[in-house]
Amino acid sequence: MQDEDLVFSRTRRLKKKRKNNRWIIVLVGILLIFILSIISAPIIANLMYSDRGANEEGMDDPTALDQENDESERSDIIPTDDEDDEEDGPTDRPNTEADGDLSPKTPDDYELTFVESAEENVVSSYTADWQPILTVQEEPHAISFEKDSTDWKEMLQAATLATGIDAENMQYLWVSGNGPGKVITTYTDRLSSENFRVHIEWRENQGYTPTQVDMLHSHDQMNRFSSNSNSDNDQENITEVDETN
C-alpha cells in the first residue's frame, strides 16, 4: 500500500513538473514574440512610411507620369516630310483671313434694294450699300469733265459698279453736275439698248460712290446730242457733258 502511494505521489509530481515546464515554455515563447515585435515594429514602420511617402510624392506631382507618357509617345512619332514642310515654311502661304479680301467688288456682290419713283419715265429704281471706288486723287477734290482725266475714269467706274455696264458700252453718255461733289451719268447700254441714269457722289478721301440707279423707259437726254450722229460708229462714241453744278 505504501509503495502504491509512493508511485502515485511521484507520478503526480512528474506531471506537475511537466505542466510547469510547459507553462514556462509557453511564457518564454510569448516573451520572445513580444521582444521580436518590439524590435521589428520600428523597421516595419519605416518600411510602411517610405512606401507611403513614395505614393504621396507621385500623387503630389501628377505631371511626372504625364511627362513620362508624353516622352514615350513622342519617341514613337516619326514626323513625315509634309509635317516638316509645315513647320519649316508656314510663311510661304498667304494669310487670307488676317489680310482680308482686298479684291475690288463687282455689281453682283451687292444686294439691291428697289425704291419707288414718281417719274413716269422711270421703270424702276434701286440702291445698294456700294463701296467707294478706290481713288488715287488727293483732297481738295474738284470734279473734272476732261475725258482723259483720272477723275473722269473713276466717275465712270462708279457707274459701272452700279449697273455692270463697262464704259466702252455706254452709248449716248451724258454727264452733268448735280450739286457740289455730285454728278449724274445717263447712257444707253449698247448691248441691251436699256437706258440708265446713275447718281454718283464724291466722298472725301474715299472716292466716287454710286447712290442710286434709275432704269428709264427712254433716254431723257437724247435732245443733247447732235441729230447728225446717225451711224453706228457715231452712236458708240457719243459723249456729252454739262459742267454746270
Automatic annotation (TrEMBL):
The chain crosses the membrane at residues 21-45. Residues 126-215 form the DUF1510 domain. InterPro entries: DUF1510. Keywords: Membrane, Transmembrane, Transmembrane helix. It holds the Pfam family DUF1510. It comes from the Bacteria. Residues 57-109, 222-245 are annotated as: Disordered. Residues 67-89, 233-245 have a biased composition (Acidic residues). This is DUF1510 domain-containing protein.
